[in-house]
Amino acid sequence: MGIKKIIQNIYIKCLIIQFKFRRMLLGFDNANLMLQRVDKRAIIPILRVGGAQIADECIFKTPLFIDNAKATYKNLKIGKHVSMGANTYIDLMDEVIIGDYTGIGPGVSFLTHWHVGEVPMKKLFPYKTEKIIIGANCFIGINSTILYGVELEEFTLIGSQTLISEKYKTGSVVAGNPAEITNKLSEKVIARLVK
Fold first, then answer.
1. Are residues 158 and 123 located together in one domain of the fold?
2. Model confidence pLDDT, tens digit, residues 148-165
3. What confidence tens digit (pLDDT) does each residue in 134-144 have?
4. Ranges of residues in the chain whose predicted pLDDT is under 70
5. Range of the domain at 15
6. What is the CATH number of the domain that holds 148?
7. Are residues 149 and 184 in the same domain?
8. Of 140, 189, 194, nearest to 168 (Cα)?
């Protein structure tokens, strides 16, 4: 191991210690703010220390915005080889589960709950929370929004700036606002992709 790699490892360990101290002394919400400005190499180790389950070979870019984590990242479960773009927003009021080999474009939002606030309108639109499940080998384009209760089966492709509010089957190609299935990957194409 070269000197550069040793220094990088020490630096990441220092950032993890900083996260732990901030969490202990200033509270979890304060420590969570580190994800918005920390070196991208420290994102995954910090999330793991905070309780997230993240498999190997993932790449997350900064800033990363995590909200409603309730003093832990345990609601975040990410498979291997997941790539997440900058400015991703993850609401952890409920679980966000992302399968292996999935790509998340920059600016994607995952919203696991609906809450209009403490206003009269809440009688019409009550509080709701539900997990989001993204299958393996999916791709979500830049600035898309994934709402609570969504499940994308494997090999689903979401175009940029798409609002996803329902479940989509394997091989769906979805785009637009409102979202529509614009194409479907054939079983033959999917079989070629998994070779």
1. yes
2. 999 999 999 999 999 999
3. 999 999 999 99
4. none
5. 1-50
6. 2.160.10.10
7. yes
8. 140
